[in-house]
Known about the structure:
Protein name (chains A, B, C, D): PHP domain-containing protein
Pfam families (chains A, B, C, D): DUF5001
Structural class of chain A: alpha/beta
GO molecular function (chains A, B, C, D): 5'-3' DNA exonuclease activity; 5'-3' RNA exonuclease activity
Strand order of the largest sheet of chain A: 4-2-1-11-12-13-21
Oligomer: homotetramer
Organism (chains A, B, C, D): Aggregatimonas sangjinii
Radius of gyration of chain A: 23 Å
Shape of chain A: elongated
InterPro entries (chains A, B, C, D): DUF5001, PHP_domain, Pol/histidinol_Pase-like
CATH architecture of the largest domain in chain A: Alpha-Beta Barrel
Amino acid sequence: MKKSTSLLLTLFTFAFMIGQEHSHTGASAMTYPNIEGYVTLKTDLHMHSVFSDGNVWPTIRVQEALREDLDAISLTEHLEYQPHSEDIPHPDRNRAFDLALAEAAEHELLIVPGSEITRSAPVGHSNAIFITDANTLMESEAEKAFTAAKKQGAFVFWNHPAWYRQSPTGNPILSDFQKKRIANGELHGIEVINSMDYAEESLALALEQNLTIMGTSDVHGLIDWDYTEKGNHRPITLVFAKDKTLESLKEALFAGRTVAVYNDLLVGKAEYLKPLLEQCIKVNAVAYEMDTLVLRVELENVSSSDLLFENAMSYTFYSKPPIFTIAAGQTETLQIKTLEKVSNIDLKLKALGAFTAPKEQPIVEWNIVVE
Amino acid sequence: MKKSTSLLLTLFTFAFMIGQEHSHTGASAMTYPNIEGYVTLKTDLHMHSVFSDGNVWPTIRVQEALREDLDAISLTEHLEYQPHSEDIPHPDRNRAFDLALAEAAEHELLIVPGSEITRSAPVGHSNAIFITDANTLMESEAEKAFTAAKKQGAFVFWNHPAWYRQSPTGNPILSDFQKKRIANGELHGIEVINSMDYAEESLALALEQNLTIMGTSDVHGLIDWDYTEKGNHRPITLVFAKDKTLESLKEALFAGRTVAVYNDLLVGKAEYLKPLLEQCIKVNAVAYEMDTLVLRVELENVSSSDLLFENAMSYTFYSKPPIFTIAAGQTETLQIKTLEKVSNIDLKLKALGAFTAPKEQPIVEWNIVVE
Amino acid sequence: MKKSTSLLLTLFTFAFMIGQEHSHTGASAMTYPNIEGYVTLKTDLHMHSVFSDGNVWPTIRVQEALREDLDAISLTEHLEYQPHSEDIPHPDRNRAFDLALAEAAEHELLIVPGSEITRSAPVGHSNAIFITDANTLMESEAEKAFTAAKKQGAFVFWNHPAWYRQSPTGNPILSDFQKKRIANGELHGIEVINSMDYAEESLALALEQNLTIMGTSDVHGLIDWDYTEKGNHRPITLVFAKDKTLESLKEALFAGRTVAVYNDLLVGKAEYLKPLLEQCIKVNAVAYEMDTLVLRVELENVSSSDLLFENAMSYTFYSKPPIFTIAAGQTETLQIKTLEKVSNIDLKLKALGAFTAPKEQPIVEWNIVVE
Amino acid sequence: MKKSTSLLLTLFTFAFMIGQEHSHTGASAMTYPNIEGYVTLKTDLHMHSVFSDGNVWPTIRVQEALREDLDAISLTEHLEYQPHSEDIPHPDRNRAFDLALAEAAEHELLIVPGSEITRSAPVGHSNAIFITDANTLMESEAEKAFTAAKKQGAFVFWNHPAWYRQSPTGNPILSDFQKKRIANGELHGIEVINSMDYAEESLALALEQNLTIMGTSDVHGLIDWDYTEKGNHRPITLVFAKDKTLESLKEALFAGRTVAVYNDLLVGKAEYLKPLLEQCIKVNAVAYEMDTLVLRVELENVSSSDLLFENAMSYTFYSKPPIFTIAAGQTETLQIKTLEKVSNIDLKLKALGAFTAPKEQPIVEWNIVVE
C-alpha cells in the first residue's frame, strides 16, 4: 500500500534511535592483550539468526558483538535447515551476511561471510567461512558442498564434534568423511569449545590432525540470556593476526594461530597460549619487604579471564597458598621467600585453567628485575 | 533439498533445549496484588517483532514476557510499515500472533491478537487488539481501518499521542480524526506511558474523553537492553479483570479498569489506583514501643514498584521524615507519635508516585487495630 | 614487667601496619559542595568510645571518620556515666580527646574537644564542645556544669530532645531548665536528627528558639554495623565555615550556619539549605531535542544524598513524572516542554527530602541559558 | 559522683538496644558440615581487645563472632604488652575473658580463657588457652610462663612462626626453646595460617613435630575492615569435637583433630581434611542424559569455602574443563563420559585448595549409585 515519505522517515527515526543506544561497547566488553608480532582479534565465528534457526534479526548479532567489543563475527546460517522458511523464503543464502554488514557499517567490527553445512552423523555440522557465495554451497551431497567451499578459498571447521546428540559417548569420532576432507585440504579447524561444552578429546584431535583450535558461542537465542546474565562471557576464538583485516584474520586461521577461550578456560597450542598468558600479566611493582628476604611482586591481570595459577618455582610464598587466582582486571600481590637477596628472579607459574593438550597446562615465565 | 528426519529431529532438539531454559519466571518477574472483586493482570499490549520493524522472532517476545511473569501480551505489528518485507513477504498479517501463540502453548500467558494502524500526524498510530483478522484492517484510508476494527469488536487505543516526532510540543493534539473515532466508538484507550515517556497531558485527555489509561513498552529491540539491564521493568498496564481469560481482559479494558505502571510511577483512575495501593501494603505488626506513646507499625510492600509516601495524618513520625519510600518487596517500620494510647488508627499516606490526574496523588487509608 | 625495646618495636610495627591500612578515604566517603562564601564541613559531633559507654578505642572513631571523609568529629563521652570505670578509672576526662588527636595527627581531620553532660529528664543530655577542660564540667548540679561550659566558651547543644526513653510521647519538652539555659546563653544548638531519628518538633523548637540545627550519629558501637552495611551513611551536620579550622567551625556553629543530613533527608534554615541544594546540582548540557520544542537538560547530583524533586514550574516534562530522584553522584535528563523556543529558563524544583521547617520544603531555582 | 537509678536504667536500655541488634547471625555467617563421629566447631582462638593492643572492647569480639556464627573464641591478650595500660591498669589478666563471657551469656558461643605469651625471637609469641588463671602466667622468664600454663592444663600453640618481623626469611625457625617446650609437653599446636598469611613450612613443621594445625585471625582492629568488606571470612580453625563443650573442644585440640581454613584454603591432616571435604559436597541428582552415555551428576557445596577441584578419574567431562570450582553454597553439574552405562561410579576429585602437606592435595572420593 501507499505510504507517504514523511511517515516512513518518522518511523525510521524512531527505530533508529532505539537501535542506536546499543551501538557502543558495554559493561560486558572483553579485552585480551596483543602478543609479539600479532594483534589479538576476539572472534565468534559460529552463530545463527532468523535466517536459519536463530531467533533474532542479524542486526542484533552485530549489536551483541559490539557490546562485548568483539573484532569479528560470522553469521553461519544452516544452509539446509531453515525452520523459518515458510516466513522467510530466503532464496539468497548470503542475506544474513548482507544485513549484518550494513548494520556494522559505522563500526570496526569485521563481518565474515559464512554458512553452516549441516548433516547427520557421521558427517555432522561444519562451518565454511570466508566464502564468496553461500548459495553455491547448497549441494545435496556433503562432499560437493565441501568442494564448493574449497573452491571459494573458505576456511572450514568442524562444529561441536563431541555433541552427544550426534555422538552419544560425548566423544568426537573421526569418520572417513572427515579424514578425507582433511586429506583434501577441505577441513581446517575444529571446535574444542562450543557453547558451554569443552571436550578434551576434540583438543587431542586438533593436535593430532593439526586442525585450528576454535571456540564459538553457536548462539541461537540471546547472548544475554545464555551467557551474560549468568556471569559468563560467550566462548570466543582469539586469533593472532598480522593486522585487523579480513585477509589477515583468514591467513591466521589457516595458519592455526588461535586460542579458544570460555571465561577462565583457555585452550590453544603452546606457541600461542604461552605468549598470550605472558602478556595477560603485567608486573607492576617489585621490592623487598622492609628488613626481610621476602620479595613483594604485584601482578596485574589485564585480560578478561580470571587466571588460576600454581607456583612452579622452588621458592614458596609468604602470604598466599601455592594455588591462587588473579581475577580479570585485578592486581594480586605475591610475597616470594627468596631466602637471600636476589637482583632478579624467574617467576614461574603454571596456568591451571590453560590447556595446550588434554591435562597439559603451560608453565609461564616472567623475568623480574629487583630494583 | 532433501533432508533426513533424524537430522531434523536432532537439530530441533538442540534448538529446543536452548530455548527451554528461558521458559521460566526469572529474577525480573513482576508481581502486583489483586484488588477486591478482580484479579490484577500484568499486560504489555504494544510490541513489535521482525514481522514489522522489531528485531526478534515472535518467540522471544513470549520468552521475555514469561521472564517478567506477565499475564498477557499483544504483538502489534505495523500493518503498513514492513521494513523487513523484502525478506519476510508476510502476506498474512496474523502470522506474528500465530507464532507467539504456539510458543506460549504450554504456559499461562495470554496472547492477544493485535495490529498497529500507522499513519502520520494528525492520525498518528493506534493499536487495535482483540481483532479477529489483521488482514482486513489494511485499508489505505485510516477511517476504514478503524471501521474494520470496530466490526471485529476490537479494543483500540491511541499510541504515544505526545510523541515529539509527531507533535513537536510533546503534547497530544486531539484532532478531528480522533474526536470522530471516539464519537463513533472506534477509539477506547490512550497510552499515557509509552516506553520511557509519561505525558500528564495524555492523562488529562484520558480523563476528559473517558479513555482507558494504558502503559506499554512498544519494544522493538530487547527488553533486557531497553529496560532490565538499566534496573527498570518495562511499562505495563495492570488490568483488573473478573478472571484471567481473554474475554475478561477485553471486558475490563473496555470498562476502563486499568492502571499504567512504569517502575515507581502508577497512573490510573482513583477508583482502581487507590484499592491497588491499599493492597500493595500489608500491615504486619502493630504495637506501642514499651513504656511510650509511640506506635510501631510495620508495612510491607508486596508489589514490584517502590512506593513513595508522604504522611497525610496530623500525627508525626518518631524516626522517619514525613516523606519516605517502601522499596518493592521490602518492609519499613513507622513509629507514629499518637500522643495518647489509641486502640485503632487510620493510617493515611499520600502516594507521591501515583497519579489519578495531572499532579493529583491519592491519599490511601488503612484502618489499623492496636492489639 | 620488663620488656626489651626490640620486642616493643616489633610489636608496635605489627599493630601500626594493621591500623595504617584504614587511614584512607574509603568507598563510603561522603562529599557535599561548598556554598558561596563558605566551605562545607562534614561533621559528627556526638559519639562515644570506651571512655564512656562506647565499645571501641578512640582511634577507631578517627579511622571511621577518615573512611567517610569527615572534616571534624568530637568524642563526647558522658562525664557522669562511665560503665567501664572499673577497668578504665580515667581520672582525666580529656583522655579520649587526647588519644583521638594523636591518631589524627597525620590527617586533615579536626578533633573537637567535647563532653556529654548527662542527666534524667527534664534536664536530659547535652553536649558541650570546644571546651578547654572536660574535668571542670563534672558538677553534681547540672546548672553548674553549663556555667562551667560557658566559661570555657563552649558551644552546647541539646541531644535527642525527642528521645522516647526521656519523653514517652516522642516529642521534645522545653522545660524551665532549658529555657533558662537558652536565656543565659548556655545552650546554642539542638539535635533534630540523632542516630536514625528525626523529630519535626525538634526542628520547630530550633526555629522558635533560634538554636543551631544539628544531626549526629551518637554512635556507641561500630559505624559499619549501625549504618554502612545497611546502605546508610551516618547522620552528620554540614557546617558552613569561613575555612577549615577549629575556630571557623566554632564560629559557624554559634552563627547557626548548618544543615543536618541523614542520607536523603536534609534539614536546615532556608538561607543555608537552598544554596546548598543549588550547588548540589550541576547543569551539564542544555539543548532542544532536534526539530521539537522539548528542551533537554542534564542535571548532575554532585552530593552524597539522593535528591528527590518535584517539578515546581508551569512547564511539564516529556519523559519523567513530575516527582523524580537524582541519585547521589548520578546524572538525570529532564525534557521540558517549553511550548515555544526560549533562550533561557528558570528551572524550579521543590526538594521533597529537604526541610526548612516542619513539612516545609524549599523550591530551588537554577537559571539556565539555552545556547 | 552520684547518679539516680532511673538515669542509669535509661542509659543502659539505650546501650542495650543498640548492642542487641547485632546479637544475631549475619550475612557473613560461616557453615561447615560435621564429619562422622564429630561435630565441627568453628573457632578463632587468637584475637585482641583493648585489654592488650586491640582497639575494641571485648564485647565487640563476641558480637563479631556471633555474626560469623563461630562456635568458640578466645581473647588472647598479650600478658606482657599492654600499650593501653596507662588507661587500663588492668591488674587482673582474666578481665577480657570475664567481659566476653558476660556478653556471650545468652548465646551458644563458647568463650575459651586464654592469654598470649609474648617475647622476641627466638621465643616468639605463643597462646595458652584453657588456662585457669592468666595472672599466674606473668613470669619474666618465658620458660616459667610455659611451665605455669602446663600446670593449668593449658593447650599452647605457637603464633605466626613464619612472621617476617621475627624471621626475616619468612620461614619458621624451630629453636632450642621450642624443641624443649615440645619435649616437655608444653607446646601442642602451631599456626599455619595467621591473619592473611599461610606458610607451607609451618605446615611441614606441624607434621614433623606432630603439632595441632591452627588458623586464626589475630585480629586487633575490626573483622569487617580486615576481612568482611574485602569479601573474605576471617581465618578459623575447624575443630572436630565429640560435642560442643569446652571440654570436648580442649580434648580435640590436644588430639590434633583440626583443619585450618582461610576462605578457599583448607589445611589439615589427611584423616580430618578428607572426611571434611567429603561432607562438604552433597550429591543431589544422578542420571544419564537422555539417549547418551553421559552421566549427569549434581554436586552441592554445603560449606562456606569455594572448593576448587581437579578431575582425578580416567573418565573425562562433557561440559566442564578438568579443573573447576564449586562456589560456597552453590551447585554445579558434572557431565561424566562413562563410555558405557554404569550402575555406580567412584567420583574422584583432587581438592586443589586443600593441603595435607606442603604441595600435597587430597583426592576425595564419593561412591555414586546410578538409579
